[in-house]
Amino acid sequence: MTKHAGWWYGGVLLLLVGTIAVALMAGTTWIGPGRLWTIASQPASRDFVTVFNLRLPRIVSSLICGGSLAVAGALFQAVFRNPIADPSILGISSAADFFKLGGALLLPWLPGRNWVLALIGGLVALAILTSGKALRDPYRLIIVGVALDATFVGLARLVSSGQATQVMQSTFNAVTWRDTVALLILGLLGIVVALLLAPWANYLKLADTALQTIGVPVRVIRWSLLLLGMYLAVSVTAIVGTIPFVGIVIPNLARRFVGHDYQTLIPFSMLAGAWLMLAADTLGRTIIVPSEISAATMMAVIGGPFVIILLQRGRGFHGITTR
């Protein structure tokens, strides 16, 4: 932990509170702070419906999704020892999207099909990604991941171009309280486990041979963290869709702000990811009212240049460390 980590934690908490307040008030109809205090006692009013049935589930969902994706990215980077390893860029999320789409077309009767099929898709992509030599070469890993991502995006478009476009332009616009509760249960479960397993990520800073010498079960640790990161990513994809780059932007900034200890980095990534996702969604739905820009598009605009700058300043993969 850096000596200023406490200040960064305080700063991101203040940003969270402020952005939540703005998100509750802003939209096609502006609801001032004074009005917010009074509408709770007026459940029949239009403002009450707007805040509690439309804006609040959207806010909670974006917070959970952002935190989950940031933590998933941090876990993937710990395992792969690669600063731009992330489920969205390695094909995990697009595979989950494709399998979810296939489930909607072929198995509409299956209870909980979106999450079940998304999980199967994530497992398939993870198995392909880890089956060859990509794990030992950061360049090869990213190339295989990008090819895998393009393949599943293409398959989704082939199956149904209209539905695939909706999946790719993931938005919180249609999120309901039912979706929000599902995200809360799935996301909080994964985040709590990630916080408990954060010390395991620190072990992976050492070489495998050194860990085996001191009796650390490297394979168990690696696969536990990989499966946990995959679970967090596909849980978001199953309900909201693919949202790119959160898992790259936030963990890399977190290392600069609070250090490389995953017991500090993971909780900070959770908070910062929640804020970034909420800020992106709030900006996207208010910048061109009454239309909106999807959360996926906002993150592509933010995350793409960030990755370019990260790689240019780091002079390639070997110049940037996750340790």
Report on this structure.
This protein has 323 residues and is mostly helical. The protein is built from 13 helices and no strands. It has helices spanning 5-25, 33-39, 46-80, 92-106, 113-129, 138-159, 161-168, 177-203, 208-213, 218-239, 246-258, 262-286, 295-314. Helix 1 (5-25) runs antiparallel to helix 3 and helix 4 (92-106) packs across helix 5 (113-129). The longest helix is centred in the first third of the chain and has 35 residues, at 46-80. The protein is globular.
Distance between the termini: 12 Å
Structural class: mainly alpha
Low-confidence segments: 162-168
Q: Which geometry do the CA atoms define?
A: globular
* Main pleated-sheet profile: none
Helical residue percent band: over 70%
Beta content comes to under 5%
Round the Cα radius of gyration to an integer and report it. Answer: 20 Å
The total beta strand count reads 0
Task: Please report the number of helical segments.
Answer: 13
Mean of residue pLDDT values:
87
The helix/strand order is HHHHHHHHHHHHH
In terms of topology, how is this protein built?
Blueprint lengths: L4 H21 L7 H7 L6 H35 L11 H15 L6 H17 L8 H22 L1 H8 L8 H27 L4 H6 L4 H22 L6 H13 L3 H25 L8 H20 L9
Helix pairs in contact: 1-3, 1-12, 3-8, 3-10, 3-11, 3-12, 4-5, 4-6, 4-10, 5-10, 6-7, 8-10, 8-12, 11-12
